[in-house]
Design goal:
The protein has 485 residues and is of the alpha/beta class. It has 2 domains: 240 residues, FAD/NAD(P)-binding domain, CATH 3.50.50.60; 103 residues, 3-Layer(bba) Sandwich (FAD/NAD(P)-binding domain), CATH 3.50.50. The protein has 15 helices and 19 strands. The radius of gyration is 23 Å and the shape is globular. Bound molecules: 3-acetylpyridine adenine dinucleotide. 3-acetylpyridine adenine dinucleotide binds next to loops.
């Protein structure tokens, strides 16, 4: 921290809870609801929104239904369609922030650069790049796991005269109309933007390293009468949410049970062959790994896009970039005005942390503790880091249902921890190493026999193959467990 800045601002009063990142909106709302106004939200940017502020590529949509991708305690009755676009989701976040009076608690342009726990005082000191230090009893890390774009470089890149940008850093000033575009990656982001830009570019080459399993999207707009009904008869909204919840929850069966996987995988193959006219192309787009082992993609537009005359699948890697083209490893040279990187995000075990030192009890630095193995208790509390909570931490991802649901369960758990500490009158509480270890042993045992243990590799795993991303069970069980702990 800058000494001058520290002298200027001084050390702040003790705050009860510092929330880092705007994934903590639900946490902030629930703290207020519990009568706790002694908290701040540190936000690195100048506006709230997180993922939905940053990912503005064409077609950016949530692949979870809007009524499930919103807080139970902050419903929006008038979602325009089943899967809202990023603008509508971002507007929901802005509206919810204001509706619950959270904006005054947000400190914008405060990127956290270090934090450490003072054991003698039982307090966290949180330093920001802006030069302030916030001293707090509790810290909730809510900055999301996928935030640093993974940007590959290629031989000869310095010669390339065209445009290169990442899906999460979309260049909206660059007009793709009539351009020759090479798009790299065939996962969640690429399958959303590629069908949109295919309609305006002259040529779109899609570079595929690994095909993805894609399932249909049950999309439709909501009629005005439905919006009015949801708003005026809350029970109908609750029933609609319940229906969506259980239909999503049903999707976990193929992931947990190999026998069901086989059947669903056949249906997914059928989906490819019915949507892609060219049988050879359909084969190239069919994964050779078990359905659900990597993230399942939801789209009605991705597969039919390959029937377009101006779209071509490329299944070999890049040899080098040239001034106006890309040379492939098979010797083909593709004209290219623009390269779009749908290449995802940096995903080592520290994805759950920002790249800054976080020092807990003596001998504990989270960047080191999680260097090769990210573990937490219920994905939330971490041994050696008292009064520290992580939203969407290790093994809290759901492949089949809404992460907002997981956040709600975690927020409830954090509130319980805070209340318990107050009741005990203690300075801090920490998860016993043995409790965390046993929890994680049981959790990892649940992966055995599921699709996630079927051999494919993905960013769900750390170097030794251990899955540190997924909750290997039903969402409902997660919720009950989190509440009981
Ligand atoms: O990134 P990804 P994403 N050369 O890492 C390929 C969330 N999300 O941005 O599979 C060639 O999944 C890579 O190939 P391979 C969601 O959690 C949510 O698409 O590694 N190819 C893969 O095809 C998601 O999981 C929504 O062989 C390269 C792709 O690029 C997460 O974001 C929407 C390469 C990267 O896929 C990330 O999705 C969008 C290289 N050098 C995203 N490097 C919702 O709707 C990478 N690839 C909620």
């Amino acid at each position: 921290m800058n000494n001058q800045a520290q002298a200027d601002t001084g050390v702040r009063k003790i705050i009860d809870v510092v929330i880092i990142g705007f994934g903590g909106l639900g946490m902030a709302i629930k703290l207020r609801e519990a009568g706790n106004d002694n908290f701040v939200v540190l936000e690195k940017a100048d506006e709230v929104g997180g993922t939905w502020r940053e990912n503005s590529y064409p077609g950016a949509t949530c692949d979870v239904q809007s009524h499930m991708y919103s807080f139970f305690f902050a419903p929006k009755h008038d979602w325009s369609k089943r899967y809202a676009g990023w603008q509508e989701i971002q507007q929901y976040i802005l509206d919810t922030t204001d509706k619950f009076g959270i904006r005054p608690f947000v400190r914008f342009n405060r990127e956290v650069c270090a934090m450490h726990f003072d054991q003698a005082k039982g307090l966290w000191a949180v330093d920001t790049m802006a030069g302030e230090q916030f001293v707090a009893r509790h810290v909730v890390m809510a900055s999301g796991p996928l935030h640093v774009p993974s940007i590959p470089t290629f031989p000869g890149q310095e010669k390339f005269k065209g445009q290169i940008f990442h899906s999460a850093q979309w260049d909206h000033d660059y007009d793709l109309t009539g351009k020759h575009v090479l798009s790299i990656g065939t996962d969640s982001s690429a399958i959303q933007y590629a069908p949109e830009i295919a309609q305006k570019v002259a040529k779109l080459h899609i570079l595929q390293r690994t095909p993805a399993w894609v399932i249909p999207r049950d999309e439709r707009p909501y009629a005005n009468w439905e919006k009015r009904l949801f708003a005026s008869v809350p029970l109908t909204h609750s029933l609609h949410r319940a229906r969506l919840y259980w239909s999503n929850e049903a999707r976990v069966w193929p992931l947990l049970s190999p026998r069901v996987t086989v059947v669903v995988q056949k249906l997914a193959k059928l989906f490819i062959t019915t949507k892609v006219h060219d049988p050879l192309l359909a084969r190239q787009l069919t994964p050779d790994y078990t359905f659900g082992c990597k993230r399942l993609l939801v789209s009605n537009k991705w597969l039919p896009m390959f029937n377009r005359a101006n779209v071509e699948l490329v299944s070999v890697g890049i040899q080098e970039l040239r001034e106006n083209s890309v040379l492939l490893r098979d010797g083909r040279e593709l004209q290219a005005d623009c390269i779009i990187l749908g290449t995802g995000f940096v995903t080592d075990p520290r994805i759950y942390m920002k790249n800054f030192p976080c020092k807990g009890l003596p001998g504990h630095d989270l960047m080191q503790d999680w260097k090769s193995n990210a573990e937490a208790y219920y994905g939330t509390t971490v041994t050696g880091f008292p009064n520290f909570y992580q939203l969407l931490g290790p093994n809290t991802g759901l492949g089949h249902n809404s992460i907002i649901f997981m956040i709600e369960a975690q927020v409830h758990y954090v509130l319980q921890c805070i209340k318990r500490l107050q009741e005990k009158g203690a300075d801090y509480q920490d998860v016993k190493p043995q409790v965390q270890r046993e929890f994680n042993e049981q959790l990892q045992a649940k992966f055995v026999g599921t699709v996630w243990s079927s051999g494919c590799s993905s960013w769900y795993q750390q170097a030794d193959g251990k899955n540190i991303r997924h909750w290997p069970d039903h969402g409902i069980i997660k919720r009950c467990s989190a509440l009981a702990s």
